[in-house]
What does this fold into?
Amino acid sequence: MLELKQTQKLSPILTQQLQQAIRLLQLSKLELVEAIEQEIKENPILEVGEEQPQPEEQVQESKDDGDEMAEFLDRFSPSEEFSYREEKEYPDYENIIKKSSNLRDYLRWQAGLANFDQNERLVVEWIIENIDDNGYLAYPISEISRSSGFSPESLEEVLKKVQKFDPSGVGARGLKECIMIQYEALGEKDPPLELILNSYFELFHHNNVKGIVKATGFSPDTVKRVFEKIKGFDPKPGRNYSDEYTSYIVPDVYVVKKEDGFEILLNDDDIPELRLNRYYMELCMDKKVAGDTKKYIRNKLHQAEWFIKSIQQRQRTLYLVAESILKFQREFFEQGLRSLKPLILKDVAQDIGVHESTVSRITTNKYMSSSQGLYELKFFFPTGIDKDGDSPLSTNVVMDFIAEIVKYEDKKNPLTDSEIVDRLKSKQNIKIARRTVAKYREALNIPSSRDRTEQD
It folds into this structure.
């Protein structure tokens, strides 16, 4: 039998303005700029310009509106005073971090797992930024040296390390070097191929089989075999990692090393300062203006004030979250990846006095730049792996150990996942399951031992 009952239930209701404030938290910087531009188009009260003192007669928020804003601030905002526009000397990363496709993101991720020292970390950033979407180094080492200030020798040394990254052939300065990198990665010895590549590449490039036969004395079948093998290499190793549309990535926050420690700087370039249009405010107080018009202006004024406060709150929260990350992961910024510690959103939320969901939103689509590289904020919240008799290690560190073990394994007899488990236990006191090693190995794009044997 159906029965109707009336019950009372308390549930949170988010107004449209609260929803907007929450949405601003999780926008990337580029998305935020677009949102500001759109709001300016839709709200005549908003305009771009330097802040000016507002008249005392400014229309005040209603009591309900004030309570609503206070509730938002209590739930989503720290209480400390904060001004997100500070007169600081920002690091000049203009030529380092401009835009990044998936290939560059992938290379930076591999660089984060590699054992680069602090100086090499800056050099590798220059190298990666100058690799085009096909995977080639777009400019000569001499030109990159003039732009960066690093010596050609240091750039060349780091480039050789980058050329060992995946995809094979990346970082080459031409087709010949690209093919040679891929050939050397196989670990094979093919003298006819090496001779043709090194001494008769132009003849190969023009598909001149007869010319190579005459010059080398090789049989036509041998030359054709080498041609087919060379054609099996990828002439554009980076093309499978590039999006159809360019993805722009700029840091939202900088961590800058100073003599007395570190400093947090927000990147507010391109984020316009907003103010309320004085004409409409005076119009709202004009007794000659019709009531409906005043009502419309008040509504738009309230929306504009809320929007400005929401942006300020977003920047304040971003600053404090970055500051807390620096506090918890200080050893990473000083020493590198292997000092990254397990961290959860709740730790940062409790540290700065906000809701855990706020930390989750503000770390979405945000990037932090430091001497260790460019990382998404969520990178600093790795899960932990227990280590016997010691503090837990982050998964990033464990993956780094796995990559290192595979790098130095016997190429003729690659290690199985079970053997990697044993190595981690004996060398690092790390206990993980074989399936966990398999999962991390796949995330690192490392083939199975059987496939590595086939490649070698």
